[in-house]
Amino acid sequence: MVKLxxxxxxxxxxxxxxxxxxxARSRRxxxxxxxxxxxxxxxxxxxxxxxxxxxxxxxxxxxTGTVHDISKKAGVFTELYLNQPKFN
Length: 88
Known about the structure:
- The chain has helices at 50-58, 65-74, 76-83, and strands at 2-11, 14-23, 34-40, 45-48, 62-63.
- By secondary structure, the protein is of the alpha+beta class.
- It has a single domain, classed as CATH 3.30.1320.10.
- Strands 4-3-2-1-5 form a 5-stranded mixed sheet.
- It is globular and about 50 Å long.
- The mean pLDDT is 88.
- It is found in: Plastid, Chloroplast.
- Keywords: Chloroplast, Plastid, Ribonucleoprotein, Ribosomal protein.
- One of its GO terms (biological process) is mitochondrial translation.
């Protein structure tokens, strides 16, 4: 199973995170499948590769709670729901 999770980067007391797609069994700093975003909690900056995130979500990737909240604030899930076909 693939998860969208945060990978810690930066230096001591100056943390930044990469949002990555990674196998659920790997550790936090393990080898990622693809980098799909960036999150800086100190400056409250977020950069997301929305098409890549949507592609992983369509394939069944599960975001962690924090990544879900970051994506929700950026409006990723509204794009996901708009792209889904409607069944009657």
